[in-house]
Amino acid sequence: MDVIRIIVAIFIPPLGVFLQVGFGLDFWINIVLTLFGYIPGIVHAVWIIAKK
């Protein structure tokens, strides 16, 4: 299941984080990072998925 989340996180980073943690602080941080730049959003999403 983590492979699917990582693939989703590459295309839509906030969705990948949402699938992992729901509407938590990490989700909102990822939205902000994705708005500032797509790459920081991807890095954060993959990090959150790999950490859990």
Automatic annotation (TrEMBL):
Membrane-crossing residues? 7-25, 31-50
Any one Pfam family here would be Pmp3
Q: Where in the cell is it found?
A: Membrane
Predominant location of this chain? membrane
The alphabetized UniProt keywords are: Membrane, Transmembrane, Transmembrane helix
Q: Which InterPro entries match?
A: PMP3
Q: Which domain of life is it from?
A: Bacteria
Where would one find the signal peptide in this protein?
Answer: none
Q: What protein family does this chain belong to?
A: Belongs to the UPF0057 (PMP3) family.
Name of protein: YqaE/Pmp3 family membrane protein
Q: Which organism is it from?
A: Dolichospermum planctonicum CS-1226
